[in-house]
Design goal:
The structure is a single chain. The protein has 528 residues and is of the alpha/beta class. It folds into 2 domains: 33 residues; 491 residues, Rossmann fold. It contains 16 helices and 18 strands. The strands form 4 sheets. An 11-stranded mixed sheet has the order 3-4-8-10-9-11-12-15-16-17-18, with helices on both faces. A 3-stranded mixed sheet has the order 1-2-5, with no helix packed on it. Helix 11 crosses helix 12 and helix 13 packs across helix 16.
Length: 528
């Protein structure tokens, strides 16, 4: 072989070696995830700054719910050709423009744009290097009182969880009138003879999409956790109760929100009640058909108040009320991590002074007023205000998640872990008064303190973040939050009422306000 042929042969061998090396390098470093096939077509994403986490934002998981698909169950996604770039959040669901209020600064709110009815998109953070891995998956469901919220909120970032070995998914669902409007005509056109629970149907569609597609991202479709806070936690409560969700997920995380106890401001709405409200709404805007209703611009619908924003007992997703489903032991058997915050109760109106609070207690609780005041004292005006705030949180969240923990722990195959978040977020100015406020725990639990720029974080906060995010990641992985170098978190039962107090020094304790919660529940049930 002459020298020219030798040089050509060497060049070819070198080129092949480089190709093999580059292919191997790209696989190890995850470049095999540059494109992924999902329902609808091929997608591409981005990576974090280190290249360790692959990020896909704005993946459509259902058809655009606009036009004739407004107020219909989510439909299969429309296929696309080529490769869809999924490198930015899809539009947040239709709602008013976000405005900071109370303790909720912009870190806890959706981006100002885009906001649209075309909102059924999800996002994925995955740290795998091969699709053959089967990592645990969590699907995050946001809060917002069922009238606001979206998956693009900064404190819902999934990168930190991905670096802990979790595949983090967040998904949008319709809110307000777009997610909860009911009408007899809508019920009649539905294959399942229901209307008014489109938000829950969106959430179920997202779970099913994850179960079908997550293996391509290195996820385990048989190890899915659903997690949510506030209205997202109430959604998780509904999904655990729904027969439509049987075998769709193994674990549930519910942070400050459930619907196990009827309260004056929170009673189960039936489909029939919602339909009648829908008729009144239809008449008030002078629409005389579904076709006319579906042609009204979305911003015009927002201007007209729709009162029934929340899940309905529709005979399909919820065949009975949630209290009835749990009383019969018919909820899905899943492991549950749940709890609430010491500062969940936030009041923006005028508060009673001590004398007014005592008078109202006597009027409401009669012979039990003194017992009530032993739990919620009012010896001074300042103490009365603190008691009202705590009472507000207990009525809205405490009694709900406490009751859920009790009911779920009755099931043979459900392990329950109960927490109390008590860390007062470091703050300046007006934010100081909010303490361990509603939503305050989220950034700690998912490793996102760095996204909350207004808080002067202390070393103890980052230590708590590390502990909480490890608890959450362990639970998502195994259904048990315990792990190496973590404080012991005992399982919760009604007989053994041990909880995890999440504060500067996390640790187990007996449920401190059990008697107060039992008192409230007893009186609410007697007046129901």
């Amino acid at each position: 072989m002459n020298s020219k042929k030798i040089r050509i042969a060497i060049s070819l061998i070198f080129a092949v070696c480089i190709t093999i090396f580059c292919f191997s390098f790209s696989f190890i470093h995850g470049d095999s995830f540059e494109t992924i096939k999902v329902d609808g077509g091929m997608i591409s994403g981005t990576t974090d700054s280190s290249g360790d986490v692959h990020i896909f934002k704005g993946i459509p998981f259902a058809a655009r719910p606009v036009g004739d698909l407004r107020w219909k169950a989510p439909q299969p996604v429309n296929p696309w050709s080529g490769i869809k770039k999924c490198d930015a959040f899809g539009p947040s669901p239709m709602q008013g423009s976000p405005v900071p209020f109370g303790p909720w600064s912009e870190e806890y709110l959706i981006p100002k744009q885009p906001i649209s009815e075309d909102c059924l998109y999800l996002n994925i953070w995955t740290g795998v290097s091969s699709a053959k891995e089967k990592r645990p998956v969590v699907l995050w469901i946001y809060g917002g009182g069922f009238v606001s919220g979206g998956s693009g909120v900064p404190v819902y970032n999934g990168e930190a969880m991905a670096k802990k070995g979790i595949i983090f998914v967040s998904a949008n669902y319709r809110v307000g009138i777009f997610g909860f409007f009911a009408l007899p005509d809508l019920t009649r056109e539905s294959a399942h003879h229901t209307s008014g629970n489109y938000a829950l149907l969106d959430q179920i569609a997202a779970i099913k999409w994850v179960k079908k597609n997550i293996a391509a991202f290195g996820g385990d479709p048989d190890n899915i956790t659903i997690a949510g806070q506030s209205a997202g936690s109430m959604s998780v409560n509904c999904l655990v109760a729904s027969p439509l969700c049987k075998d769709l997920f193994k674990h549930a995380i519910a942070e400050s929100g459930a619907a196990l106890i009827n309260t004056p401001g929170r009673k189960a709405t039936t489909l029939q009640q919602a339909e009648q409200e829908g008729i009144r709404y239809e008449q008030s805007i002078h629409a005389n058909s579904l076709e006319a209703l579906r042609k009204i611009p979305s911003d015009e619908l927002l201007k007209k108040y729709w009162p029934l924003n929340g899940p309905k007992v529709d005979g399909y997703i919820l065949p009975k009320s949630i209290p009835e489903i749990f009383a019969a032991g018919e909820e899905n058997e899943v492991n549950l991590l749940t709890g609430w915050n010491e500062g969940d109760g936030v009041s923006f109106g005028k508060m009673d002074n001590a004398e007014e609070f005592k008078k109202h207690a006597e009027q409401k609780y009669g012979v039990d007023a003194n017992k009530f005041l032993s739990f919620y004292p009012a010896n001074t005006d300042e103490e009365a205000v603190a008691s009202q705030q705590r009472l507000s949180g207990d009525l809205m969240f405490g009694i709900q998640n406490y009751t859920w923990a009790n009911k779920q722990s009755d099931l043979k195959n459900s392990n329950v872990y109960l927490y109390r978040f008590a860390r007062k977020l470091p703050a300046t100015g007006d934010y100081v008064k909010y303490g361990a406020f509603h939503t305050g725990e989220v950034a700690y639990a998912y490793g996102n303190l760095d996204f909350v720029h207004r808080c002067p974080w202390q070393p103890v906060d980052f230590a708590l973040e590390k502990t909480m995010s490890s608890f959450w990641a362990n639970f998502i992985s195994t259904g048990n939050p315990n792990g190496k170098d973590l404080p012991e978190w005992p399982g919760y039962t009604e007989k053994k009422e041990l909880i995890m107090r999440l504060d500067a020094t996390p640790g187990k304790e007996m449920l401190p306000d059990k008697k107060a919660l039992d008192f409230l529940i007893k009186h609410l049930k007697s007046s129901d």
